[in-house]
Design goal:
homodimer; 387 residues; alpha/beta; Rossmann fold; Dehydroquinate synthase-like, alpha domain; 6-stranded parallel beta sheet; two-stranded antiparallel ribbon; 15 helices; alcohol dehydrogenase (NADP+) activity (chains A, B)
Chain lengths: 387, 387
């Protein structure tokens, strides 16, 4: 095991009806609230009205319309509102994009300069407003981690902003709020969770307990995503996906493993930075191609482990590469079975800008230091395989 | 999945040499420190001198001689020192007993009445001094949880004190400090960790992800305890046991499962409350007898799951009870293989007070509401099986 430092101070309230706790819990942080949300799905499921009713007596300001792959502009707008109105706590109701944007708002509200300087780490984050979240999509794990991914469309940048001040103070996780998530978004969320775990699992040095926890999360998603898609109101399936999403991205699964470089995320961030596609879909497309590309004598052991313990592939007496390729094919076939588009063409991306993206990734993402290092040429080949 | 609330705010510094961080981290809480430790093993391994040297410039008071199954008297003594000296932070260096005692000291130092009233929950805990720990034994998980078990010898009480104020602020976990732990104590620690997980696993309703995480922890301990006993300086083995101990008892393994009643702990607390035996040894003795006693049509599914996923027992085409009994025998044989005494006689306990203990447990532990309910008669039978 490698050395590590770990702390996830977020409090979780998980399960049916936990939103009823909101008034009492929120009041601990203040009465002046910025309520943030997305395109209106929380209105459709009645959650907007529910929250507004519960928070009768609070002074509520609203920032709505936060988009998928949230943009710097929304962060700046939210931070400005917080400063002008003296907001004491931000309440984010939505999926990972709303939560990520709100995390950056919490930090930018306590800083007098440019929000982008905080997001890019040019200046250190010293303070942030407390954030309370009500989650409506199982995918990014933002509800239980210290990260926010923010896009800056004019430069095609999509930056991962990591800071200890960004942990939500409280996250309310009621799986019922994901009943109306579409099959496509449920599948994309499942691919997102799985890839978070894969990024922690495919590395060296690794360790046994981390392996087992990563495999636990992968098997849980593999088992329950089809159930949630088949019966959107299957509480147990929605609950398993939701808690797997929370444990998938806050680091606890891979503690003691070396940082892998998160190569699929590095590549996907260019795809959704340039083309604004759904992050989980991009990850589903990239992951099996990345796996095929890096499979080698050096990486073989990880793939055999993955084949045996995640997919239940019999390995005894078989050629390691055959086993590894079978596991990669199973990964691909699983994403297909969830109904995910598995080529860039299907999501409207052609070959025109692959070279530009490969260059952008090679320059910005440090993948030459990844567990299985990638040059610009490697990255371009992986992107071409995704077409 | 059942609803749950969860938060573990403790910061963990894990790995070789992390104690070097102590001065900088401790200073955040203050300069007046109560250093607590046990019988002197930290002197033998040089940790006492190391800590004293690192904390040059701090104002250090010492409470040494904290005993296994820590007693109320030590809590009172430590709390008195904190009050008299104006201690700002407690630094506990040792195993679970030192940590548990120190947690209670932190709370009692902020309360003007009787410490026992806090410990028994007669009065609510409203405040506690910050606690920093340096762990030297992988067993109880106290370094990463909110519990402290305190004994009151004059009444044979051994009480579990659970409160959110008891989480350590920071725990430094360097597996090297467990190199000198004896084979017997290593084995007892392994049994302790395993039983913490078993108490979360054998219940209903349970859930898939919790099952997988519990199985991960059990398999990790089963794999690495013999390695640590065989080669006390095996860093990886010591590290796996240490992190498994931390994840084993703070609740994260069984989230969404119903509380089982922790029956083996309830029974063992009487054994070590009456006879001051090593907690992990008591658990190793009780666990397989409790398993045999509660095995029934109603509980069978859990045992088959345990057999298949923890011990790798082939279940297809076999009688469920045969599979379950094989798993129980494997559990027993595993503890034997670690060199643990597996009868009460071997630890100096005869039949004289079994009835008295069974009554004490039945009256105080609420096991009539356990997952598999136990009457006083059941408890007595289990104790008799342990002879």
């Amino acid at each position: 095991m490698e050395n590590f430092e770990y702390c996830t101070p977020t409090r979780v309230l998980f399960g049916k009806g936990q939103v009823e706790e909101l008034p009492a819990r929120l009041a601990a942080y203040g009465k002046k609230v910025l309520l943030t949300y997305g395109g209106g799905s929380i209105r459709k499921i009645g959650l907007y009205d529910k929250v507004k009713k519960l928070l009768d007596g609070f002074e509520i300001y609203e920032l709505s319309g936060i988009e998928p792959n949230p943009k710097l502009q929304s962060v700046e707008e939210g931070a400005k509102m917080c400063k002008e109105k003296g907001v004491e706590v931000v309440l984010a109701v939505g999926g990972g994009s709303v939560l990520d944007c709100s995390k950056a708002i919490c930090a930018a509200a306590c800083y007098d300069g440019q929000a982008w300087d905080l997001i890019t780490g040019k200046v250190p984050t010293k303070k942030a407003l407390p954030l309370v979240t009500v989650l409506t999509l199982s995918a990014t794990g933002s509800e239980y981690d210290w990260g926010a991914v923010i896009s800056k469309p004019d430069t095609n940048d999509k930056v991962g902003y990591l800071d200890g001040h960004l942990f939500p103070a409280l996250s309310i996780l009621d799986p019922e709020y994901t009943y109306t998530v579409s099959a496509r978004q449920t599948a994309a969320g499942a691919a997102d969770i799985m890839n978070h775990v894969i990024e922690q699992y495919f590395t060296a040095p690794n360790n046994y307990l981390a392996d087992k926890i990563c495999e636990s999360l992968l098997k849980t998603v593999i088992r329950y995503a089809p159930k949630a898609i088949g019966d959107p109101n299957d509480y147990e399936a929605r609950a398993q996906l939701m808690w797997a999403s929370s444990l998938g991205c806050n680091g606890i699964a891979g503690l003691g493993n070396r940082y892998s470089g998160w190569p699929c995320h590095a590549i996907e961030h260019a795809l959704s930075g340039y083309y604004d596609i759904t992050h989980g879909v991009g990850l589903a497309i990239v992951t099996p191609r990345w796996m095929r590309h890096i499979l080698s004598e050096k990486t073989l052991e990880r793939f055999v482990n993955y084949a045996q313990n995640v997919w239940g592939i019999e390995v005894n007496g078989k050629d390691g590469f055959a086993v590894a390729n079978e596991a990669i094919e199973k990964t691909y076939a699983y994403f297909v079975s969830l109904g995910l588009p598995m080529t860039l063409k299907e999501v409207g991306i052609g070959s025109e800008r692959l070279g530009e993206m490969a260059h952008h990734i090679a320059v910005n993402e440090g993948l030459e230091n990844a567990w299985s290092p990638l040059t610009e040429k490697d990255i371009l080949q992986i992107l071409q395989e995704c077409l």
